[in-house]
Amino acid sequence: MAIYSIVMEEITHHTGLSPTAFFTIAALVLIVFRTVSAMFVSPEDFNKPPVAAAVSLNPNPNNNSSFLNGVLDQTPTKASVQLGEITHQELSAYNGSDPNKPLLISIKGQIYDVSSSRMFYGPGGPYAMFTGKEASRALALLSFKPQDMNDNLEDLGPDELQVLEDWEDKFIDKYPNVGKLVKQSTSTEEPSQSGEELKKEN
Fold first, then answer.
1. What sign results for the dihedral spanned by CA atoms 7, 9, 10, 14?
2. Which residue ranges does the record annotate as region Disordered (predicted)?
3. DSSP class of residue 134?
4. Residue predicted with more confidence, 115 or 190
5. Rounded alpha-carbon distances, angstroms, from residue 113 to 11, 82, 143
């Protein structure tokens, strides 16, 4: 009885209503709630626990939203193909313009397949300008300028080289190395002398 009396006193203290009035109002609120809810929910479903909506991991193929397709695309990334040694010109073909080719970036002459992060390095991504290029200098300078997309590190300071090393470590840990970037082949042979030049010398 002591607990009952305390509860009744607390109700009166906090609501300013008598216990009878409080419970009467509470009962009316419950009745109104059930009545209004019944207008939108069938009686059979009213007492069922809520069920979380299922999210499809296979978006409608007719949906043109690239953002949703990128977020919901759970298709495993294809195994990376080792390319061996390729030139700058050959590397430029892997810039995302051909959806059937992987996305490649070169750092300090080592080529990495970043296809697993297509949302970042693919067409329209925030780092798409690095794809298909040797990006060492640009990454060291945190630059998006086209003229910095090269491997010239001669004038960089220790801090900038450390930034590049951090980027390189990240790529080594996250992306497969698929090849090596080489300079364009240049002929070092001296051109042969013509017959007329030989006659003049004789």
1. positive
2. 182-202
3. B
4. 115
5. 68, 10, 21
Give the pairing of strands 104-107 and 110-113.
antiparallel
Q: Tokens 């499809």 appear where? A: 56
Largest CA distance in the chain: 133
Record the tokens describing residue 193, joined without a space.
């002398």
Q: Which of 111, 159, 154, 156 is nearest to 132 (CA)?
A: 111
Long-range contacts of 146-149 (CB under 8 A, 24+ apart): none
Topology of domain 84-182, CATH: Flavocytochrome B2; Chain A, domain 1 (3.10.120)
Q: For helices 2-15 and 19-38, what crossing angle results, to 10°?
A: 70
Q: What SS3 state is found at 55?
A: coil
Six-digit token string for 139? 């990454």
Instruction: Say yes or no to pLDDT of 15 above 60.
Output: yes
* Predicted confidence (pLDDT) at residue 68 exceeds the cutoff of 60: no
Q: What is the pLDDT of residue 38?
A: 55
C-beta of residue 104 within 8 angstroms of C-beta of residue 91? yes
pLDDT digits (tens, 9 = 90+) for 116-141: 999 999 999 999 999 999 999 999 99
The letter for the amino acid at 91 is: L
- Contact between residue 135 and residue 152 where contact means Cβ atoms under 8 Å apart: no
Domain spans in the chain, listed from the N-terminal domain onward: 1-38, 84-182
3-state DSSP percent of the chain in helix, strand and coil, to 5? 45, 10, 45
Return the closest-CA partner of residue 84 out of 65, 64, 104, 56: 104
What is the Cα–Cα distance from 79 to 91, expressed in whole angstroms? Answer: 18
